[in-house]
Write a structure and sequence with these properties.
Elements (H helix, E strand, L loop, with lengths): L6 E6 L5 E7 L21 E2 L2 E2 L2 E5 L13 H4 L5 E4 L16 H15 L4 E6 L2 H11 L4 E7 L12 H20 L2 H4 L9 H10 L3 H11 L2 H7 L12 E6 L8 H16 L5 E5 L6 H4 L1 H12 L2
Parallel strand pairs: 5-6, 5-7, 7-8, 8-9, 9-10
Antiparallel strand pairs: 1-2, 2-6, 3-4
Helix pairs in contact: 2-3, 4-7
Length: 306
């Protein structure tokens, strides 16, 4: 039976671990319709400027590939589209070393090495935003552009307040308790309602375990401290196109003041790119890939056009 997110592929890392990925190969040449101004004249999908970029999705802090199950299949209709589980999430074994930003971006770099020379469009949600920025800065020549979906951003002062950090620690502790009791999935059941059946089944089985929460806890230990250093020296993206998609509504743990601060930071991030673009997802709080997936698909398609 075919899975909506494609076929499984195991990706080796440089230190001998494995990451679980799922791949949709994209349309056959001259087969499925593609966004306007895109063509497929060669043996592989191409644009007028060369090979069609592969689109790789990076999920948020505590979730794996299933969170992209409304976006990736739609992108897979016109490009190769790859989702994966970071170490310790989904089906990927835990990393025994650390969950620092640099470590996670290094794993993403290993995944890109595995799938070829590129070019790539990298799409990151929430905490995945800084991860794809750091991976792109390491090898900008193989990246065609970034789509940052309601990303964590160092320009948002609220992220570094003592209150935000206290809330984050409490959430992790409560989630770990609920996971041990087998109740964490119930707390987040509304976030799964719109997912396709197979992805919903995967998320229910994989995302709400104590092991997944421990991975999140390991990331929380260093993530904001690392992100804070970017306020002085952010990753250098040169002239890469950067599109930032913001949720248009408060909610999902973000009151109106926090939403306003986040969106101002997102507008700033887009302004730093010579081809920057800031877009509002009108029906969404933080979980844009679940509530406004078509907005993300549209922005990915825009970056793929010649």
């Amino acid at each position: 039976m075919n899975h909506i997110q494609g076929t499984t592929e195991w990706v080796p890392t440089r230190d001998g671990r494995r990451l679980h990925a799922m791949v949709l190969p994209g349309p056959e040449p001259a087969a499925a319709p593609v966004p306007e101004a895109m063509t497929t004249p060669g043996p592989e999908p191409t644009t007028a400027a060369g090979p069609m970029p592969t689109v790789v999705f990076e999920a948020g802090a505590a979730v794996g590939r299933s969170s992209w199950a409304l976006v990736q299949p739609a992108v897979g209709a016109f490009a190769r589209a790859i989702v994966y589980d970071r170490a310790g999430l989904g089906r990927s074994p835990a990393d025994p070393v650390s969950r620092t930003l640099r470590r996670m971006a290094g794993d993403l770099g290993d995944l890109l090495d595995h799938f070829g020379a590129g070019p790539y469009v990298l799409v990151g949600h929430s905490a995945g935003g800084p991860i794809v920025r750091l991976a792109a800065a390491a090898r900008p020549e193989r990246v065609a552009g970034l789509v940052l979906v309601d990303p964590a951003d160092e320009a948002a002062d609220v992220l570094f307040s003592p209150a935000f950090r206290r809330v984050e620690r409490v959430v992790v502790r409560v989630n770990l308790l609920l996971a041990h009791l087998g109740l964490l999935g119930f707390a987040y059941r509304s976030t799964m309602l719109t997912l396709p059946r197979d992805a919903r089944r995967d998320m229910r089985r994989e995302a709400f375990t104590a092991a997944a929460v421990r991975t999140h806890r390991a990331q929380v230990r260093t993530f904001l401290d690392e992100l804070a250093t970017w306020r002085i020296g952010p990753p250098h993206l040169g002239g890469l196109p950067v599109t930032v998609v913001s949720g248009g509504r408060a909610g999902n743990g973000m009151p109106a003041s926090t939403r306003a601060a986040a969106n101002a930071a997102h507008a700033h991030r887009a302004s730093r790119s010579p081809a920057g673009r800031h877009v509002i997802a009108p029906r969404s709080g933080h979980y844009v890939p679940l509530t406004d997936p078509e907005v993300v698909v549209t922005e990915v398609a825009r970056l793929l056009r010649p």
